[in-house]
Design a protein that fits this description.
Layout: H1 2-32, H2 66-71, E1 73-75, E2 79-81, E3 93-100, H3 111-125, E4 133-140, H4 148-158, E5 163-165, H5 170-183, E6 187-188, E7 205-206, H6 212-224, E8 231-237, H7 240-244, H8 246-255, E9 259-266, H9 274-282, E10 287-291, H10 294-304, E11 313-315, H11 321-328, H12 331-334, E12 337-341, H13 353-362, H14 370-389, H15 395-404, E13 406-409, E14 413-416, E15 435-439, E16 448-451, H16 454-459
Parallel strand pairs: 3-4, 3-5, 5-6, 6-7, 8-9, 8-10, 10-11, 11-12
Antiparallel strand pairs: 1-2, 12-15, 13-14, 15-16
Length: 462
């Protein structure tokens, strides 16, 4: 069962923190000196959910400084919050706000939140977290950056949640960052990837998904791990998404000593990639980095191999080789194609069977895919933090536990953050390893393998 997996991981880390906790307790007792005059500022109000908020405060809400957010937080409705502030917790429940684009053009990305909710439900069936049931409040963000701030304020001030877990659309979270900092509520994003979410970092906002920047660097380092790769080219969609991959990829390739012979644009609606393919052929590259959505990538791969562009092609996490094989209908067109990949095992690995069964048992109308499984990584982490907290469920304790916890997640592998540094974005990123998915060279079907470098790929060759 999933609960047993992360409980084991937490037990490995608990002993190393025990001595530090004992020292802290001695210091606190010494500072208190037996004075009983201080009042308890912890608020644990009864929780209600009575409809949508009418608060429409704009996204330009003035943010407090990171230092102030760490020590004291002030909200319109609640006044000053001390380090022991909390809400959404009773003897029997912990209230969590989950939001995702359940409707609209980006609705497919809400599958991650669907799996998260299913995992919380499973934990409830197994007895909850330290005897408390997780009460999940879900809200549809529709990927609308203009309304997410009101949604978050509703979670905190009306629904009185203990923490927020969600966000599939980067633009929405980025727009709400000033309010997230102002309110001080623990915020764990789900499957949004923009580096701006954690750059600059906020003390109470944790960003567990590898960013496009980290994937770009990973792509370049994977290419550089091939000792025969000396000259490369980069092809990227001409839109903002595609172009965002180019600078970190090019900078890392050049830092690794490779020659970037060409940087080419490709239209997202491309119907024939021949001109781009011919320009790539003209510079005689050893490997290529190509960044495109699934459909333009299909167009590029369909034209590349028949025209003689047989060099290895590496991409970000926008599409997988097995998906391209299904689209192309010809395995040879999707061979020697590598996509950045965040998971520890191939998507169809038996390791993830329990997650697939859980998802399909609650959402039989939805297709299990790599978007859905993304919801497991941050949920595993949150469950581990909540378990570690025991009865000390305050916002400050959640934040300090989350930034010191080290765990080995089932889906994403080793994961840890760091003590907050406003000048270091990596303290709010998980330090995940960028892996790569490719069609298994020992089979003729759509089976995939997961590798980290070129040596591992060579070792798999029949």
């Amino acid at each position: 069962m999933l609960i047993a997996y992360w409980q084991y991981t937490i037990m490995r880390n608990s002993f190393t923190r025990l001595s530090a906790l004992l020292v802290a307790l001695v210091l606190v007792l010494a500072a208190c000196g037996g004075d009983s005059s201080g009042g308890d500022t912890t608020a644990s109000p009864e929780t209600t959910a009575s409809g949508a908020s009418t608060d429409t405060e704009p996204d330009s809400t003035t943010a407090t400084t990171a230092a102030a957010a760490a020590a004291t937080d002030t909200t319109e409705s609640g006044g000053e919050r001390g380090s022991d502030a909390t809400q959404g917790v009773t003897d029997d429940t912990i209230k969590i706000g989950v939001f995702a684009p359940y409707s609209g053009d980006a609705a497919v990305y809400s599958k991650a939140a669907n799996l998260a909710e299913a995992m919380y439900n499973q934990i409830n069936e197994e007895g909850g977290i330290n005897g408390r049931q997780i009460e999940v409040i879900t809200v549809d963000s529709a990927c609308d950056a203009t309304s997410v701030s009101a949604l978050i304020r509703r979670f905190v001030e009306q629904d009185q949640v203990f923490m927020i877990h969600g966000g599939s659309c980067s633009n929405a979270i980025v727009a709400a960052k000033p309010l997230i900092e102002e309110l001080g509520v623990p915020f764990l994003s789900m499957n949004a990837a923009s580096p701006i979410i954690s750059d600059p970092p906020l003390r109470n906002l944790f960003h567990p998904k590898p960013t496009a920047e980290e994937y770009s660097i990973g792509v370049a380092e994977f290419i550089a791990s091939n000792p025969e790769a000396e000259t490369t080219a980069i092809v990227a969609q001409s839109d903002e998404w595609g172009q965002s991959w180019v600078p970190p990829t090019q900078e890392t390739l050049e830092a690794e000593g490779l020659n970037v012979a060409a940087v080419e644009d490709m239209e997202p609606e491309v119907g024939d990639a021949t001109p781009v393919i011919r320009r790539a052929l003209s510079v005689d590259t050893d490997m290529l980095a190509v960044y495109a959505y699934p459909q333009p990538m299909t167009v590029f791969l369909r034209g590349a191999r028949p025209q003689g562009l047989t060099q290895p092609i590496v991409t970000g996490d926008g599409t997988r080789p097995d998906e391209q094989f299904d689209r192309l209908g010809d395995r040879s067109l999707a061979e020697n194609f590598f996509s950045a990949y965040a998971f520890t095992e191939p998507f169809d690995s038996p390791t993830f069977d329990d997650l697939q069964t859980l998802f399909e048992s609650e959402y039989s109308n939805l297709e299990w895919d790599s978007v859905a499984i993304e919801g497991a990584v941050s949920t595993e982490f949150n469950l581990a933090v909540l378990e570690e907290l025991g009865d000390d469920l305050t916002w400050e304790n959640w934040i300090t536990t989350a930034e010191t916890l080290e765990m080995d997640t089932l889906v994403g592998g080793p994961m840890s953050f760091g003590v907050f540094d406003p000048n270091d974005k990596t303290t709010r990123r998980p330090g995940s390893t960028v892996r790569f998915s490719a069609l298994d060279p020992t089979t003729t079907g759509s089976e995939t393998v997961v590798i980290e470098n070129w040596d591992e790929w060579l070792a798999l060759q029949p």
